Amino acid sequence: MATTPSLMGEVGPEQWDAEYRRTGRVVFRPRRRALLSRRVLLSWAVTIVPAIGTFDEWDTRGTWFYIRVVGILFLLGVAVAETTRILRGQPLLLVDTTGIRLGKAYVQWSSIATIGTPVKSFWSDHIPVHLTAEDADDLDIPREIVDDLPAFAAWLTHLHTEHP
């Protein structure tokens, strides 16, 4: 039974490798659990908490009231955009025989120096993909796409050794 692309981030290296060997590529979409990630929850909390105090002062509409309303609308836009991005399945991660594509960023296997170890931070857990060009930014693969970051890093390292 073939695993659908939306579930690839929740299965293991055996299924990734089988799909890669069968089709020459593996497509990873953000997991629905990513809606409960720190980034999304924090963006909504930062929007809702100031809104509570702002709309309690509905009767006294001074300059600060309108400044806070504009700020809350901006934060609301950020929270909605972050939630919509995940619901639309963005960013898409594609690992194929030519390289790695994350959203619009594309890196050929020959441009990859090393696959880093998983990094845990408050904002986002991710795997850094270090590039050979010194002026290029690392490609960071977030946990919202793949659940088992250590296994995914090991699998990418194995694929990297196959593509000199």
SSE topology sketch:
Blueprint: H1 13-23, E1 25-28, H2 38-56, H3 63-87, E2 93-96, E3 99-102, E4 105-108, E5 112-115, E6 126-131, E7 139-142, H4 149-162
Antiparallel strand pairs: 1-2, 2-3, 3-4, 5-6, 6-7
Helix pairs in contact: 2-3
Give a short overview.
The protein is an alpha+beta fold and 164 residues long. 42% of the residues lie in helices and 18% in strands.
Structure description:
This protein has 164 residues and is of the alpha+beta class. Helices cover 42% and strands 18% of the residues. It is built from four helices and seven strands; from the N terminus they run αβααββββββα. The protein has helices at 13-23, 38-56, 63-87, 149-162; strands spanning 25-28, 93-96, 99-102, 105-108, 112-115, 126-131, 139-142. The strands form two sheets. A four-stranded antiparallel β-sheet has the order 1-2-3-4. The chain has a three-stranded antiparallel β-sheet with strand order 5-6-7, with helices on one face. Strand 3 (99-102) and strand 4 form a beta hairpin. Helix 2 (38-56) packs antiparallel against helix 3 (63-87). The two termini are 32 Å apart.
For the termini, the CA-CA separation is 32 Å
Strand content: 15-25%
Number of helices: 4
Uncertain residue segments: 1-6
Mean pLDDT: 80
Which sequence of strands runs across the widest sheet? Answer: 1-2-3-4
Q: Key features?
A:
164 residues, alpha+beta, four-stranded antiparallel beta sheet, three-stranded antiparallel beta sheet, 4 helices, 42% helix, 18% strand, elongated, disordered N terminus
